[in-house]
Design brief:
Helices cover 22% and strands 30% of the residues. The chain contains three helices and nine strands, in the order E-H-E-H-E-E-E-H-E-E-E-E. Strand 2 (39-44), helix 2 and strand 3 form a beta-alpha-beta unit. The structure holds 1-O-pyrophosphono-5-O-phosphono-alpha-D-ribofuranose (PRP), manganese (II) ion and magnesium ion. Residues 46, 72, 161 line the site of magnesium ion. This is Hypoxanthine phosphoribosyltransferase.
Length: 181
């Protein structure tokens, strides 16, 4: 019920602001990984749009791979159980890995990925997330690069889904609670 879109109670960030955040983090990654060739591990499906922005704004040599995990199954709350749907194709042993997430909410997905990548012998594991919902964290976890901090509200758009739709929207918005209550 914004003036323009009844699906959302508030628009948080549009694609221009998101691109600006990607430029800022891309420049940090260029500095932090100078002389290295990290692998961006894009967490499907939510991180797809943000990963494109971030990837385009990194200038050093960098690889990209994909992993598909899920725990929300389209709903508004985590099932607290992570399902690995499609694995990486790269060997991460002795590699510098940057996990690319759209959002860290409970932190369970990130904890799962960090432990998976460490078990496989990654040399370093850091995370670049578009959104961090600090008040949603259920585990003690920290993302290294954060686009925006957000409040404890259910958001969608720009890769994030509500029941698998709205990932295509060019902004992040707070979903109107009337939609799911
Ligand atoms: C969402 C989101 C993150 C994760 C964050 O993925 O894209 O990957 O949950 O939540 P958490 O911190 O509480 O674990 P989801 O399971 O909805 O799959 P999707 O990316 O395919 O939508
Ligand atoms: Mn996801
Ligand atoms: Mg989802």
């Amino acid at each position: 019920m914004t003036d323009t879109d009844p699906r959302f109670s508030k628009i948080l960030h549009d694609h221009r602001e998101i691109e600006t955040a990607a430029k800022r983090i891309g420049a940090q990654i260029d500095r932090d990984y100078a002389g290295k060739t990290p692998i961006l591990v894009v967490v499907l499906k939510g991180a797809v749009m943000w990963a494109g922005d971030l990837f385009r704004n990194i200038s050093i040599d960098v690889e990209m791979d994909f992993i598909d995990i899920a725990s929300y199954h389209g709903g508004i709350a985590s099932s607290n159980e992570i399902t690995l749907r499609t694995d990486l194709t790269s060997d991460v042993k002795d590699r510098d890995v940057i996990i690319v997430e759209d959002i860290v909410d409970t932190g369970l997905s990130l904890r799962y990925l960090e432990s998976l990548l460490s078990r496989r012998g990654a040399r370093s594991v850091k995370t670049a997330t578009m959104l961090n919902k600090q008040k949603g964290h259920k585990v003690d976890i920290r993302a290294d690069y954060v686009g925006f901090e957000i409040d404890n509200e259910f958001v969608a758009g720009y890769g994030l889904d509500y029941q698998e739709i709205w990932r295509n929207l060019p902004f992040i918005g707070v979903v109107n609670p009337d939609i799911y209550s």
